Amino acid sequence: MIKTFIYKTFSASMALLVLFSTVSFTVEKHFCGDVLIDAAVFDTAEKCTSDSYELKAAMDCCKDTIGVIKGQDELSVKTFNDLDFDQQLFIATYAHTYLNLFEGLPQLVIPHENYSPPNLIFDIQILDQVFII
């Protein structure tokens, strides 16, 4: 029970690690002065849109910052010919044994398959009063 739970947890965490290591995204932030107005991950950040005189005066010092978090771009893909001879031999042997592992069993021969028992005319055990105890 615990072994399957650990196995499934480890498998899920490795899948998430691969997913998050290859995903890249941007974080966009909008500042008015030193005040953070909006931050967005998948959308554009909201700008300062107010009619007040103070914010219009502060519009000159508004700035947008964009932080890019890059994932892994280069994934190495190896073909069978890129491997050493020992690795190729191991993979070929493993594939051969795995594919031949699940061969079907020969059909079982049942010699009395078409045999029909004789009709019972008398129950001999009852007539002779012989019972298995």
UniProtKB/TrEMBL annotation:
Signal peptide coordinates: 1-26
Xref: Pfam families: DUF8199
Coiled coil keyword on record: no
Family matches, as InterPro entries: DUF8199, HYC_CC_PP
Keywords noted in UniProt: Signal
Protein name (Swiss-Prot/TrEMBL): Secreted protein
